[in-house]
From TrEMBL:
Residues 109-240 form the Glutathione S-transferase UstS-like C-terminal domain. It comes from the Eukaryota. It holds the Pfam family GST_C_7. This is Glutathione S-transferase UstS-like C-terminal domain-containing protein. Transmembrane segments: none annotated. InterPro entries: Glutathione-S-Trfase_C_sf (IPR036282), GST_UstS-like_C (IPR054416). Gene3D superfamilies: 1.20.1050.10, Glutaredoxin. CDD domains: GST_C_family.
Length: 244
């Protein structure tokens, strides 16, 4: 059984979007797994203890360890496979367990570019609100650690409506791109036209983050934007939101 490492919270279900990307894939591919909960202060020591590679490297050369991470026992080999970084994990799961594809033939490069956009540009306007709200959902010990290391202020800005308007501009832009799939080329909801793929899970993981952390202020409005498109995408992925 695959082990997925995730962050505990004080809401009924986890919220971290990068980790939800992998959980959605595991559920979509119907792979048996269990979740191992790791608080923020223990992430680096835990990942080092299982010989997980660092997620990235700081400018001074020091490694950065972050979640998600997985351990796949791989019965056919003597050593388990241990990975971090959501994109690396997604590609590994696709290559190792190709049933129910998330990277249709010829789409890997385009999807990688799309997911980069979601991670680096699409979510940026949300951070001033979502990071402080996410911090509030952490256990007390993790909150203390997060406050000491967060590069983003942890007080929700007073100009909340201005932040949501900036976020809506990104949602509008992405909706305009996805509208190109409407009609004969696709249903206009999913990125590749008809079937769910990794790109959809990258977007839906952001929607889940908002739905779990800001259900009334954020999700209540976003699910209505762009003619209800984001609510429809969330519903398409809902069957893969189980937590084991």
């Amino acid at each position: 059984m695959i082990i997925l490492y995730d962050l505990p919270s004080n809401v009924p279900q986890p919220w971290a979007p990068n980790i939800w990307r992998i959980r959605l894939i595991l559920n979509y591919k119907r792979l048996p797994y269990r979740t191992c909960w790791v608080e923020f202060p223990d992430v680096e020591s835990t990942l080092r203890s299982i010989s997980a590679p660092p997620t990235s490297v700081r400018n001074d050369g020091r490694p950065i360890y972050s979640l998600p991470a997985i351990v796949d026992p791989m019965r056919s080999t003597r050593q388990p496979v241990v990975l971090s970084n959501p994109n690396t994990i997604a590609e590994y799961l696709e290559c190792t367990y190709p049933a129910r594809q998330i990277f249709p033939e010829g789409s890997r490069a385009v999807q990688s570019l799309f997911v980069y956009y979601v991670s680096e540009i699409f979510v940026k306007p949300l951070l001033p609100i979502m990071v402080p709200l996410s911090h509030q959902r952490l256990p007390e010990r993790s909150q203390t650690h997060f406050r000491a290391h967060s590069p983003i202020p942890l007080s929700v800005p007073p100009e909340r409506e201005q932040v949501w308007r900036a976020a809506q501009e990104q949602f509008n832009f992405l909706a305009g791109i996805l509208d190109k799939n409407a009609g004969m080329d696709g249903d206009g909801v999913v990125v590749m036209g008809h079937e769910l793929t990794y790109a959809d899970f990258a977007v839906c993981s952001v929607l889940i983050w908002i739905e779990k952390v800001a259900p009334h202020e954020g999700w209540a409005r976003i699910r209505q934007w762009n003619g209800g498109r984001w609510g429809r995408l969330w519903e398409r992925c809902q069957g893969y939101m189980d937590v084991f």
